[in-house]
Every structure is written in structure tokens, then in C-alpha cells.
Amino acid sequence: MRHGGLAPLVFLLPMVLVFGLFSWGPIVQSVVMSVQRTNMVTGAEFVGLDNFAQVLADPLLWTAVRNTLWFAVLALVFGYPIPLVVAVLINEVRRRRGLFSALAYLPVVVPPVVAVLLWKFFFDAGPNGVFNTLLGAVGIGPLRWLQDADTAMPSLVLEATWAAAGSTVIIYLAALAAVPPELYEAAEIDGASIRRKVWHVTLPNLRGVLLVTFILQIIGTAQVFLEPFLFTGGGPANATTTVLLLIYDYAFADSLGGDYGAATALSLMLAAVLAVFSALYFRLTRSWSTS
Amino acid sequence: MSGRGLLSPAEWASKPLRRGVRVVHGLLLALLLVVGLGPMLWLAKAAVTPTRDTLRQPLAIFPNGIDLANLATAWTRVDIDRHFLNTVLLALGCWLVQLLVATTAGYALAVLRPRYGRLVTGVVLATLFVPSIVLLVPLYLTVVRTSMINTFWAVWLPAGANAFAIVLVQRFFANLPREVFEAARVDGAGPYRLFWSVVLPMSRPIIGVVSVLAVVASWKDFLWPLLVLPDPAAQPLSVRLPALQRYVELDVFLAALAISTVIPVVIFLVFQRLFLRGGALEGAVKG
Q1: Cα(B39)–Cα(B57) distance, rounded to whole angstroms?
Q2: CA angle at residue B109 from B104 to B110, to 5 degrees?
Q3: Which residues of chain A fall short of a pLDDT of 70?
Q4: Which homologous superfamily is A51-289 in?
Q5: Which of A14, A187, A258, A290 is deepest in the core (most CB within 10 A)?
Q6: Tens digit of pLDDT for each residue in B83-117?
Q7: Ordered structural domains, chain B, with CATH
Q8: One cellular component GO annotation, for this chain's record (chain A) (predicted)?
Q9: Is some CB atom of chain B closer than 8 A to the CB atom of A123?
Q10: Hey, which residues does B56 pair with through a beta bridge?
Q11: Is A170 at the interface with chain B, CB within 8 A?
């Protein structure tokens, strides 16, 4: 049954209003604003690509890009293999598997702001800090954690990994449950060891999911905000200023009125880079992901 | 749960291997307890421990007794009660708006199916691929222009623009048996009755999913309420906590953190299944 007429319009109305005002409108507006100089007092003025040029000439941008890449790389090194290993191990648990996955998921339940503030206390640089007490018990430290330019970023990644790993574990567990047992049986008939079964059956069957979680993690880490904002505010010495933090600073750090043109220009550039990267990624891995 | 996983029955039958697996699982359980539950237990402990003890021996368990007054102080003197109420109201409003938008749009697109439905679906789906950061500044200026700053509408209404919720509902509606709709129509039900008396009652599961996702997302939200609710009296817990840290004593602050975690944990325990079976998708899509 296909309705023309009024009813579909009535039912679409809330969505059209909300999306028009709070999604489609702002998306278009952000493109417009990126080529304008706007402040809330005088009218907007067309400035062409000046905003983009201004952002690209900002030395802080390259610091922010470097930091964001560093965050992404560290997050991959820490965060990508851990959920996979945990999920593969949990999948072999025969009793109380639910307890294992619930425990793994628990950090995701903690509100992100609470998690960051709690970890900020754990990261206390004094010898009586929680982590320093733990490290002290095995004769290491005390580390300066968030207060040292070298350890600040790894500290943020540590918390971010802790906070996010649980949801990835759940995704992998769902994928593992879908691996057909016959494949394992076939491998066993060929005399495959456990290690070879992991390598030749488990991992190939997770390939599609692994490819997706990889790109989602890249997209997520490229937009990291909460951790640098609440842990360090970008410090020490801009060692944790990320691209999103820079966008925020352009737009909102100055209470007298922000540089909205620069902020939208940079956010559009970030979105474009991510879009191009994802498109390339899916093109390059297409042949590889269909199993 | 399928009958077997990676390990074959033959491998399970081997004693040394079984023992090895058991050791690995024991270690894993210990690790998950420390890493997953540990910080929460520590927070619960610190919430009722005097500041001095938490600072000097953060890992000792109640070296000088319990201080339950922290929780009461946080609740009343630091106005956590007000921010808690704000958080609840924000979550309720986001939930209502999202549910209204998602069910009506899902119904129009999946059941009524107007000719332009595909186009509309496409435009909704396209927003999934736009990172939310692109919206931030223009959305903020929209809220300023419409003088919604410091009102809950500034949080409630944009929450409705959630394409993922619409997709979830639309898919569910599209899989409902169409014979039921035809039967209802033959019985004289118009599109509005069909929506209210047939489709919605049949859709409790997906409404539950969307509701839980909406409430949890709203409880977690930080940056947006920070921007549009500069008045401390209107702020939810997530926005207020970082500010509190600067002028509240540590034990009371940790008690406030603990209070903020209770509702999400309760929601998790009640809806465990939803979270542990694919609810994780929620974080994956809207980054």
C-alpha cells in the first residue's frame, strides 16, 4: 500500500522540522560559514578561502595534527589487539560467560566525564597517587603521568582504551558466535593445532568486522576531545592539543566571540580528510574483506 | 550459544590442555575484575572515605573508618541533587523527542511509504556520515539565535536529529507483517489509528532499544550541554562535575562522582542483554 496524500507528510513533519533546524540546516550553514568572516555583531562578510588559509598557516594546527596522529597510533597499538584477544578468550569460556563479558563491558557503563575525572585522580603525580602506589609496589616510578609532555598522551590513551575496549569486545563476541563450527571441525580433520585454527579459521572469519572496527577506531580517535579537554586542557606545552580541541578553542575559548570561520573551516577539512581516508580504505580493502 | 567454539571436544578432553585453559581463564577473570570492576569499587570505597585517608593511602580499605556524610554533603551542600535532577530531565526530554521523531518518521517511511520516501531516507542516512563536529558551531549559533541558550530545549530538540534511531525503527517497522496492516485497514483504521493502535503496540522491543540508547547517550553527553547551558543551575552532572573539582573537597567530589555513576550502572544491570548483544553498535555509529 502506497499512500500519497497528507498522512505521510504529517508523520514526517517532526523529523523534517528537527532535522531541518538541527542537522541539515547546520551542515549547509557550516559550508557557508567556512567562507565567511562572522561575528555575532556585524553581518557576515564573504572572504573566500581566507579561513582555510588562516587555519593552514596556524603553527598550532600541525602540532594538533601530529598529536592527533600520535593519539591514533597509540590507541591502535594499545586498543586494537586487546579487545580481540579478550573476546577470543571469552568465547572459549563455558560457564558464566555472561559474567566475563559484563565485566569487560563495565568501563563503558561509567559516564565518560566520571571516568576521566576518576582517572585524573589515579594519575596523581605524587608518590601517593593511585597508579604510582601500584607501580611503587613493583619498584617503578613515581611517574609524572599527565604532567610530563612525554607521558601525557600515553596516559590519555590508556584511559581512552580502558573506556572503549568493552564495546569492541562485545562486537567481536557477536562475530565469533557466528563462526560456523564446521570450519573448525574441517581444520581439525586436517590436523590443525589451536594456533593454526586461530590463524586460519578464527581471524579470517572476523576479517569483515576487524576491517570495520579498524576504520571506526580511526574515525573515533581523529575526533578525540573529552580526554585532552578534561585531563590536560591540551598541555603540558600543547603536547595533547588535538584537532578537535583546536576547533573548540577557535570557536569558544575566547568568551568575547569566537573565530567561527576558522572553526568551521577546520572541521570541514577534518571531515573531508576522514571521508577521503574512509573511501580509500574501503576501496583498498574491498577485495580483501569479502570472504 | 553454539555447541562448540575454537576448541574441539577432543581438545577439551585432554587434561593438560583443559588445565591450561582453566588457568588462562582464571587469569582473564582476575584481570577483568581488577580492570573492569576495580575502578568502580575503588570509587565506591573512596566515596565514603575521609579525604585524608584517600590522599595518604589511596589503596588502603578504610584505614580510619567510614565517612558516610560525604554522600549527604555532596547531595545537599554541593547541589548534586539539582544537577542530578537536571540530568534526569534532560534525559527524559531527549528520550521523548527522539522517540517521537523516530517512530513517526519510521512509520511514514516504512509503512506509509510515500513516493518520495526513498529520497527522504537517503537524506536522513547521509547525516550519519557527517561527523558531529561539523555541526557544532552552526548548531550552537542556531541555538543562540533562537534564544534557547540556558533552556533544556537546546539539548532536547537537537537530540531528535538522530538518524541512527530512525534507521533502527524504520527497519523494525519494515519487517512487521504487512497483512496485519491490511487487515486493520479493511476494518476501517486510518493511518493515524494504524500508527497508534497497531504499529506502536507491536513495536515494544525496538522502542525499548531506542529508549535505552537515548537515555544512556543523554546521560553521557558533555560538550553540547557544556556549550548551551552556561548557567550552572541548569547544568547536568557531566558538565558540573569538572567545575566542582576546583572548589569541593576531594572526598565530597568523589562521592559526587559515585552518585553520577549509579543510574548508568542500574540501567546496565537491568538491560544487560541489550548492551551485551549488539547494543554496542550505538557507540560505533555516532562518533
Answers
A1: 15
A2: 100
A3: 1-4, 39-42, 255-257, 288-291
A4: MetI-like (1.10.3720.10)
A5: A258
A6: 999 999 999 999 999 999 999 999 999 999 999 99
A7: 9-68 (no CATH), 73-285 (1.10.3720.10)
A8: plasma membrane
A9: no
A10: none
A11: yes
Read off the pLDDT of residues B156-183 as tens digits, 9 standing for 90 and up. Answer: 999 999 999 999 999 999 999 999 999 9
Q: Provide, as residue numbers in chain B, all residues whose Cβ is less than 8 Å from the Cβ of A161.
A: none
Q: What percent of chain B has pLDDT over 70?
A: 95
Burial of residue A138 (CB within 10 Å: 0-12, 13-18, 19+) is exposed
List the grid coordinates of A49.
578561502
User: A69-92: string of b/e by CB count within 10 Å (b at 16+)?
Assistant: ebbbebbbebbbebbbebbbbbbb
Q: Which residues of B touch A100 (CB under 8 A)?
A: 28-29, 32
Q: What is the pTM of this model?
A: 0.90
**Closest CA–CA distance from residue B209 to any residue of chain A (Å):** 16
Where do runs of H (alpha helix) occur along chain B? 9-13, 15-32, 38-47, 51-56, 69-76, 80-107, 117-126, 132-145, 153-159, 163-174, 178-186, 191-193, 200-202, 204-220, 223-228, 237-244, 250-270, 272-274, 281-285
